[in-house]
Design a protein that fits this description.
181 residues; mainly alpha; 0% strand; globular
Length: 181
């Protein structure tokens, strides 16, 4: 299997997983928010501690200033993770902002990569990027819409992004099959 077909199959699997995740989020909204807030805080804590340990014990060739600053920033990330674990609502608020920014950046990247690649399924990929950017903007423009609305918008965006990934993967696989036939 060539690289292009592997990439399309990976997009297909990710798309199906995104659709399933969105459906689960719609089905159990309160539990989903608690789990997401907890996992976000845990992720920050583990990232901070891991990076700190790596800088302490496995980066002896790095400059001292780099290691000291890296350890301090890693400690800060770990502390933010602990605070998020203590207060799931604060964890969700921080995550809300980071997810919105991440969605906008990911959507823009998808649009620019699609415009520059000239590959099959480009229109669907541009659509994917636009939906992702708009979802991020909606979260930042209306921060007071609450976590339930965030969950609804997030789950809807995840389902649509998943569907667009599936469609673009199928389009790419069809195009690759036509080329090899």
């Amino acid at each position: 299997m060539d690289h292009s077909r592997s990439w399309h199959w990976a997009r297909l699997v990710l798309g199906v997983a995104a659709v399933v995740l969105g459906i689960v989020a719609f089905s159990w909204p309160e539990a989903t928010l608690r789990v997401v807030g907890f996992l976000f805080g845990l992720n920050l804590l583990l990232m901070g501690v891991t990076r700190m340990l790596l800088l302490l014990f496995y980066a002896p060739n790095h400059p001292v200033l780099y290691r000291v600053l890296g350890i301090l920033l890693s400690l800060l990330v770990a502390i933010v993770g602990l605070l998020c674990l203590r207060n799931i609502v604060a964890s969700l608020a921080l995550m809300l902002v980071l997810v919105a920014i991440g969605w906008m950046l990911d959507g823009l990247a998808e649009i620019f990569v699609s415009l520059g690649s000239g590959r099959d399924g480009g229109g669907w990929r541009i659509g994917l990027g636009i939906v992702t950017v708009l979802a991020g903007i909606a979260i930042l423009v209306w921060p007071n819409i609450g976590l339930s609305a965030f969950l609804f918008i997030g789950a809807t965006a995840v389902v649509f992004v998943g569907l667009l990934l599936v469609i673009s993967a199928i389009s790419g696989l069809r195009g690759a099959r036509t080329v090899t036939a």
